[in-house]
Write a structure and sequence with these properties.
Blueprint (H helix, E strand, L loop, with lengths): L4 E3 L11 E5 L2 E5 L8 E7 L5 E8 L18 E8 L2 E8 L3 E7 L10 E5 L3 E8 L6 E7 L1 H4 L4 E7 L11 E5 L13 E5 L2 E8 L6 E7 L7 E6 L10 E7 L5 E8 L5 E10 L5 E3 L8 E3 L27 E2 L8 E2 L6 E4 L1 E2 L13 E4 L5 E10 L6 E7 L3 E8 L5 E8 L7 E2 L4 E2 L4 E8 L4 E7 L5 E8 L9 E8 L8 E10 L2
Parallel strand pairs: 26-37
Antiparallel strand pairs: 1-22, 2-3, 3-4, 4-5, 6-7, 7-8, 8-9, 10-11, 11-12, 12-13, 14-15, 15-16, 16-17, 18-19, 19-20, 20-21, 23-27, 24-25, 25-38, 27-37, 28-34, 28-38, 29-30, 29-37, 30-31, 31-32, 31-33, 34-35, 35-36
InterPro entries: ConA-like_dom_sf (IPR013320), GH43_C2 (IPR041542), Glyco_hydro_43 (IPR006710), Glyco_hydro_beta-prop_sf (IPR023296), Glycosyl_Hydrlase_43 (IPR051795)
Family: Belongs to the glycosyl hydrolase 43 family.
GO molecular function: hydrolase activity
């Protein structure tokens, strides 16, 4: 009988900075969502390998006025997910505002509004711990040098058990400047095990770093350290930053990310055990595994976060996020199928990176073909709608209404250093104001655009290499917009969005 195995990554898209918790027989995961809304995705699994997206904990980012426009690398950084006192808790750091928390009685909510636990610049990657034996509660966090001038250290606090306040000014409990060879220590996750306080924390930067473990008999230290996961001779660069979880049968596992350029931070699952010296051993003796025996859990059907969407009733699935807090009337519900997006008027119509009204989902981490049907329901000259690949460079293909009332298929792009888009191919007529749009995503996130305006798919322009933002993988996006002006500018309807193997 063949032993069932899984292959990494178990989440092959940008589920950045994952953290995980078990409640009964269920596992839950959250991840960074930065400036997109809704934020704080919530994933569910029964076997740690097959995951589905079940919701979000954050409807809108606060304060709302700060996120009316895209802030792609800001917002929700590196959340921690915990279960305590029959409630789910998520803590995260906004590098420009401070440490927030939300909580809920069930994973699907209702979630509280964000509570600012500690205000300040550069406070990131918080993680709480409730000591059930003493009744004490603690919090540890890291620092973003870009905002605070401080990095490579972890600060600890005593926390009120209700999670509403910190009880002291904080103390540096790990200063990695004092550890030879260590730099950019961040992303701490706090636990208790075998009479020790444990901090699992990455260092060495996202592209090339490693996973560290720290232990102390007291929360405030002193801590000793050990590297417990690193690339070694594998092709998994920078394996680090994630969470430890124990199954009901006592197996230990560690979920972490790997930075993969335009694909963002994909998620790997590592076996974990405790060595004879009392330190955790991750992966294959400290090296990440590519294939491994499944966790000893009841078999589950294959599953992955949803991507396809028919937009029933004009509603979009939970896999979609806006590039900022959504505005009223951007998407209209109706009686049929199809996503009806209002052509939002904007002075930034020349640059998708500046638009809050782009509806996005994650770029898949393996070669895929993306297709969607589009109808431009606008007579406004300059109104346009399309399918985009969005990063610090972007490309899109879609329809635009000409000054003479005709619809044209257009394909445009902008380099990272450009402040406006330009044509990637010559416009051509789309007589019915309809098109089927396609992006073929190949190796290294190289994207080939094509469209069918009634005479079959025809390739358009050169291959476009997708690029990430600073911390965020590239995104797929749907949008409808119009130049500035007065009155309603019409709409565009998208249907049959599909992501499929090539």
């Amino acid at each position: 009988m063949t032993t069932p195995t899984y292959r990494n990554p178990v989440l092959d898209a940008d589920w950045s900075d994952p953290d995980v918790v078990r409640v009964g027989d269920d596992f839950y995961l959250t991840a960074s969502s930065f400036g997109r809304a809704p934020g704080l995705p919530l994933l569910h699994s029964r076997d740690l390998v097959n995951w589905t997206l079940v919701g979000h904990a954050l409807d809108r980012l606060e304060p709302a006025e700060e996120f009316e426009r895209p802030r792609h690398d800001c917002g929700v950084w590196a959340p921690s997910l915990r279960y305590h006192d029959e409630r789910f808790w998520i803590f995260w750091g906004d590098p420009d505002q401070g440490i927030f928390q939300v909580n809920a009685p069930e994973i699907r909510g209702p979630w509280t509004r964000p509570h600012l636990l500690k205000a300040g610049k550069g406070l990131i990657d918080p993680c709480p711990l409730w000591d059930d034996e003493t009744g004490e509660a603690y919090l540890v966090h890291a620092w973003a040098k870009s905002r605070s001038g401080i990095k490579n250290r972890l600060t600890g606090h005593r926390m009120h058990p209700d999670g509403t306040a910190l009880l002291d000014e904080g103390k540096v409990i790990v200063d990695a400047d004092r550890i030879p060879g260590w730099f950019t220590l961040e992303g701490p996750k706090l636990y208790q095990h075998d009479g020790w306080y444990w901090i699992l924390a990455p260092a060495g930067s996202v592209e090339t770093g490693w996973q560290g473990a720290f232990r102390s008999r007291g929360f405030f230290g002193p801590y000793e350290e050990k590297i417990v996961l690193e690339q070694k001779d594998t092709d998994v660069n920078g394996p680090h930053q994630g969470g430890w979880v124990r199954t009901a049968t006592g197996e230990d596992w560690f979920l972490h990310f790997q930075q993969r350029g335009a694909y963002g931070r994909v998620v790997h699952l590592q076996p974990m055990r405790w060595g004879p010296d009392g330190w955790p051993v991750l992966g294959d003796d400290g090296a990440p595994v590519a294939v491994h025996e499944m966790p000893d859990l009841p078999p589950q059907p294959p599953a992955a976060p949803a991507t396809d969407d028919d937009f029933p009733g004009g509603r979009y699935g939970r896999q979609w996020q806006w590039t900022a807090n959504p505005g009223d009337g951007w998407a209209t519900q109706h009686s049929g199928d199809g996503l009806r997006l209002t052509c939002v008027r904007s002075a930034d119509a020349h640059d998708l990176r500046k638009l809050p009204s782009v509806l996005t989902q994650r770029l898949p981490g393996a070669p895929r073909t993306v297709e969607v049907e589009l109808r431009l329901d606008s007579d406004e000259p300059g109104a346009r709608a399309g399918l985009a690949v969005l990063g610090d460079a972007f490309g899109w293909i879609g329809l635009q209404r000409g000054t003479d009332g005709t619809a044209h298929l257009v394909h445009r792009f902008a380099e990272a250093v450009a402040d406006a888009e330009r044509d990637a191919a010559h416009p051509r007529l789309a007589p019915e104001g309809r098109a089927r749009l396609r992006i073929e995503i190949g190796a290294d996130a190289r994207c080939r655009f094509s469209a069918d305006t009634g005479d079959g798919f025809r390739p358009s322009g050169p291959v476009f290499a997708a690029t990430p933002w600073r911390w965020v993988g590239a995104l797929l996006g749907l949008f409808a917009l119009a130049p500035t002006g007065q009155g309603h500018a019409g709409a565009a309807t998208f249907n049959r969005f599909r992501i499929s193997p090539p």
